[in-house]
Amino acid sequence: MKSLKCDSWMHQIRGSLKSWTKLWCILKPGILLIYKTPGSDHWVGTILLNACKLIERPSKKDGFCFKLYHPLEKSIWAMKGPKGESVGSITQPLPSNYLIFRAASESDGRCWMDALELALSCFSLSKMTAKSGRDGDLSSSSESSHILQLLQSSPLTDQDLLQLNDSMLENHMENDANSDKSEREAHEDSDNAANENGGRLTEESDMDQSDDVCLQATAFVEEAHEEIGEVGEASQVETVSEENKGLIWTLLKQLRPGMDLSKVVLPTFILEPRSFLDKLSDYYYHADLLSQAVMEESPYCRMKQVLRWYLSGFYKKPKGLKKPYNPILGEMFRCCWLHPQTDSCTFYIAEQVSHHPPVSAFYISNRKDGFCISGSILAKSKFYGNSLSAILDGKARLLFLTRDEEYIISMPYAHCKGILYGTMTLELGGKITIECEKTQCYTELEFKLKPFLGSSCNVNQISGKIRIGEDILATVDGHWDSTVHLTEKRTGQQEVLWNPGPDIRRQRLKRQVVQIDQQEAFESERLWQHVTRAIKDKDQMRATQEKFVLEEAQRQEARERAERPWNPRLFSFNTDTNEWHYKYPEYVHNSTLRLLLIIIHKLYRKIMCFKAKLTNSIIFIDVYGFFIIIIIIGNTLQ
């Protein structure tokens, strides 16, 4: 396979006995092949880079040291060699879970570290083609010379990029036997372990995670069923059976006013059969409103459209008083919505990045329509005696890419009353803001709780205003699950800002989800499938048992992890802003080849700079092969 490739003598590699040996290393996407001599006759071993971390290692001796290691102290070696070898050439013993390298000079060492990082990136991208099942050799294609000529021109224009024609993309590359086999074996072992446990999360299998992210082209299918509650108070009231009242009283005996409920195990009869990460996606069934907001010319009209989208996320509600599952640490959820009018797609991905305190991070992107959203929610709950509140502490950042405008958005809290006496009812309350610092346009909105002596018309009320600077442009009032009116301050003209009637509900975008048999072990639907099935079967005892299995496995994992910090797979914490950021925004799926080729252009320039650094080094990079891989990936994403 033609690919990103580096090979040279590594000045020294340290063995288990702390002595050093000179070995020949060949770097390919995802693997590092080690030989006693140049060539392929004396294979020593193959390191699987997707399981490794890379760090610089200070040294008192001459040269430059760096270390490849497995963060969980597991083996970094493949079971077989590139030609099926099961036993490597005899050298001094090498460690199983790490390897320390010494280059002759700092410049050579830095080049090797850069090459290793590029190889890892190249491998992550190339894995997206693994399921296509096609083969072929690009090097024999008649278009190869044209592609190479395009890639060697500097700089490439957008028109040049679009000259990469479809016939070129129909070709394919050969699979690397070693890396493909080792990855396949690893996945088979993982799948077999999950199948033996019925897909459950167990201490021995699914709890072990590595930090690498396998970027594959995801197959989404339209969601089969969606439940939307009724308008008004009727769908927000819970009638509790006598049996369940006993469970509530048992629970209440453990509580005291003002207590945080985040560590309290709640009975399963009040659970909505889906994860909180799934529930956070309710805001994007009308994401096409954001596509329209980007196109509005005035800041005021854009703010009106953003507010309309914001209100669209509340009317989908379960019947009764229901609470989604508290996500397991490391759990993730992904889905998307197709936009027929713009032929685009809004992608959503979320991960539980902390358990105590419970923090959910999320990232939403539709780059074709020009917007993305990021943020995190710290879920807190307080008990007040006859009522409790679920507070969503956090902010979402909505960015209009073409306008460089950012809207900071906060959330209302959920309030449940009538726990000890009266009717158990769920409402939304609190003041929220939508702020755009660039345009100085702000929305203030209050979700009002029903007064003690209020009537049904006082349920789900909201009121607010839109202003630019200190000038109030419009006022807002109505009910968040039905009609909301906007009144222009200057003219007194009134319009319906939002009304989720039958016509609007028919315009909801269809959510696309990943089929459960194709989900990873820590994806929400697969993770909670046994609890969900028991709840839908109205078997509360089995639901409680299945929920306990998950929670106990999480506690055991926390005990084993002890003081070691948890490292989320998809998000990283910025200590300067105290916010969570998605690690891989450049890899969010794009539905157009043009966007992909622009990414190729950026990568090309980066590798050209890297190639220039290696002019005087014995390491070389096959840039042509690297780009052939990415071009094929473009074909798989269409």
TrEMBL record:
SMART domains: PH. GO terms for biological process: lipid transport. One of its GO terms (molecular function) is cholesterol binding. It is a single-pass membrane protein. Residues 3-121 form the PH domain. It comes from the Eukaryota. The chain crosses the membrane at residues 616-637. Residues 174-209 are annotated as: Disordered. It is found in: Endoplasmic reticulum membrane. InterPro entries: OSBP_sf, Oxysterol-bd, Oxysterol-bd_CS, PH-like_dom_sf, PH_domain. Its main location: endoplasmic reticulum. One of its GO terms (cellular component) is endoplasmic reticulum membrane. PROSITE patterns: OSBP, PH_DOMAIN. Keywords: Endoplasmic reticulum, Lipid transport, Lipid-binding, Membrane, Phosphoprotein, Transmembrane, Transmembrane helix, Transport. Residues 174-190 have a biased composition (Basic and acidic residues). Gene3D superfamilies: 1.10.287.2720, 2.40.160.120, 3.30.70.3490, Pleckstrin-homology domain (PH domain)/Phosphotyrosine-binding domain (PTB). The keyword Lyase does not apply. Belongs to the OSBP family. This is Oxysterol-binding protein.
